[in-house]
Amino acid sequence: MLKIVLLGPPGSGKGTQSEKLVAEYGVPQISTGDLLRNAVANGTELGNKAKAAMDAGELVSDDIVVGMIRERLEEPDTENGFILDGFPRSLSQAEALDELLERLGRPLQAVVHVKVDQEEIVQRLLERGRADDNEDTIRNRLKVFEDSTAPLVAYYEERGLLSAVSGMGEVDEIYARIKNALPAEAK
Ligand code: B4P
């Protein structure tokens, strides 16, 4: 049973580390970035609405993202847990998540904040080279993170859920740090 949020700037390794957690704990990774990219690739109405914001490195509107997460968390494979990767990204998303998980009777166990230096992030993302990984968009995504997502650190700290780990270094050593930060009931 693992019910956690991975919080961190773009390129901090949330997706990379989620894959390792999925392999070990057998719970699904729920990445709003992946769900949105699928919607864009399939040309759905939702994807068409999200595309411009994603290309600019802005947040997609809360009603789209929260609706997507609500549907995903109601699927049966999340009953034994989930790894939220890239959600929530704003205080209003965090409040919506609290309400949703309370209704489902599945409170969060932990929020792991993966911290990485800004210049390392720019390098990693330029190397990856996804459509939204150009320097201007990356810098905007970092600014959006500071403005909208960083306040979640205090939000989860106040609720006693936050652990911070360094996301610098090798993938496996970061994974060991994340596992160490998980609460006993999740191990
Ligand atoms: P995301 O898909 O979440 O994009 P991301 O933050 O860049 O992903 P991540 O942080 O998982 O990248 P990873 O470290 O795995 O979002 C994209 C866009 O979707 C947003 O800009 C926004 O428009 C929209 N969106 C998503 N969620 C939203 C929400 N909740 N609300 C509103 N809008 C939302 O990978 C980065 C690279 O680093 C990879 O190439 C990886 O191989 C590499 N890497 C990983 N670990 C490394 C290490 N230790 N050393 C070196 N390289 C490493």
From TrEMBL:
E.C. designation(s): 2.7.4.3
Broad class of enzyme this protein falls into: transferase
Pathways per UniProt: Purine metabolism; AMP biosynthesis via salvage pathway; AMP from ADP: step 1/1
Record InterPro entries: Adenyl_kin_sub (IPR006259), Adenylat/UMP-CMP_kin (IPR000850), Adenylat_kinase_CS (IPR033690), P-loop_NTPase (IPR027417)
GO molecular function: AMP kinase activity; ATP binding
Catalytic activity: AMP + ATP = 2 ADP
Subcellular localization(s) per the UniProt record: Cytoplasm
Keyword terms, alphabetized: ATP-binding, Cytoplasm, Kinase, Nucleotide biosynthesis, Nucleotide-binding, Transferase
Binding-site residues, AMP: 32, 37, 58-60, 86-89, 93, 130, 141
GO biological process: AMP salvage
Keyword Cytoplasm belongs to the record: yes
Residues annotated for ATP binding in this entry: 11-16, 128, 169
Ranges for region NMP: 31-60
GO cellular component, one term: cytoplasm
Record comment regarding domains: Consists of three domains, a large central CORE domain and two small peripheral domains, NMPbind and LID, which undergo movements during catalysis. The LID domain closes over the site of phosphoryl transfer upon ATP binding. Assembling and dissambling the active center during each catalytic cycle provides an effective means to prevent ATP hydrolysis.
Role: Catalyzes the reversible transfer of the terminal phosphate group between ATP and AMP. Plays an important role in cellular energy homeostasis and in adenine nucleotide metabolism.
NCBIfam families cross-referenced by the UniProt entry: adk, PRK00279.1-3, PRK14527.1, PRK14528.1, PRK14531.1, PRK14532.1
Family that this chain belongs to: Belongs to the adenylate kinase family.
UniProt subunit comment: Monomer.
Entry protein name: Adenylate kinase
Organism field: Salinisphaera orenii MK-B5
